[in-house]
Write a structure and sequence with these properties.
The complex is a heterodimer of chains A (108) and B (113).
Chain A: E1 4-7, E2 10-14, E3 19-25, E4 31-37, E5 43-48, E6 52-56, E7 59-64, E8 69-74, E9 83-90, E10 97-98, E11 102-107
Parallel strand pairs in A: 2-11
Antiparallel strand pairs in A: 1-3, 3-8, 4-5, 4-9, 6-7, 7-8, 9-10, 9-11
Chain B: E1 5-7, E2 10-13, E3 19-24, E4 31-38, E5 42-50, E6 53-57, E7 64-68, E8 74-78, E9 87-94, E10 103-104, E11 108-112
Classes of the chains: A mainly beta (108), B mainly beta (113).
């Protein structure tokens, strides 16, 4: 099955800083999502982005499907951005696979 | 709020017991997925149902079973519970079978003592 890598595993930022999180897939995917798991355990959909670029407020994401990676950009980070960021994906007929996550801590 | 509901939010039980977790998908979604999140294994896919039929299986133990009912809600049954089954169990739903965006419920936190 597909393998998913995420980097960095941990990230500590000062409030107001920008960051880039990366997700690499071992094979092509037709479904790719980014999630934020908040400190209460909730998994929140950020982007459904099998290809291209999307923006939502301070967050944006870009997927380069031909090179099997996706990037999540967080600008002007806030303490509420803290938590774990997961990417996950699959191809037709395959199971949805999550990466190990990037743990983000934003300090006030 | 994703529109996916799960009950109960928390469950504490003893080894050897059996529990049932319940999930209601978003209105209009036909697929339901179950995932387990444990500290050592991360988020892992367990099983998927589409319109009442089992569609895909992941790393689901034989002690675990699931079903999707005609009203599309789903139940995950965990039996002969072990300490290692303590985890957060998520349900997700999507419109179709594959390649569609999945929306996750709030999860059920299971503690086996």
């Amino acid at each position: 099955g597909i393998q998913v890598e995420q980097s960095p595993p941990d990230l500590i930022l000062q409030e107001g800083a920008n960051s880039t999180l990366r997700c690499n897939f071992s094979d092509s995917v037709n479904n790719l999502q980014w999630f934020h798991q908040n400190p209460w355990g909730q998994l929140i959909n950020l982007f459904y982005i099998p290809s291209g670029t999307k923006q939502n407020g301070r967050l944006s994401a870009t997927t380069v499907a031909t090179e099997r990676y996706s990037l999540l950009y967080i600008s002007s980070s806030q303490t509420t951005d803290s938590g774990v960021y997961f990417c996950a994906g699959n191809n037709y007929g395959q199971n949805f696979v999550f990466g190990p996550g990037t743990r983000l801590s934003v300090l006030p | 709020d994703s529109g996916v509901t799960q009950t109960p939010k928390h469950l504490i039980t003893a080894t050897g017991q059996r529990v049932t977790l319940r999930c209601s998908p978003r209105s209009g979604d036909l697929s339901v997925y179950w995932y387990q999140q444990s500290l050592d294994q991360g988020l892992q896919f367990l099983i998927q149902y589409y319109n009442g039929e089992e569609r895909a299986k992941g790393n689901i133990l034989e002690r675990f079973s699931a079903q999707q009912f005609p009203d599309l809600h789903s139940e995950l049954n965990l039996s002969s519970l072990e300490l290692g089954d303590s985890a957060l169990y998520f349900c997700a739903s999507s419109v179709g079978t594959s390649g569609n965006e999945q929306f996750f419920g709030p999860g059920t936190r299971l503690t086996v003592l």
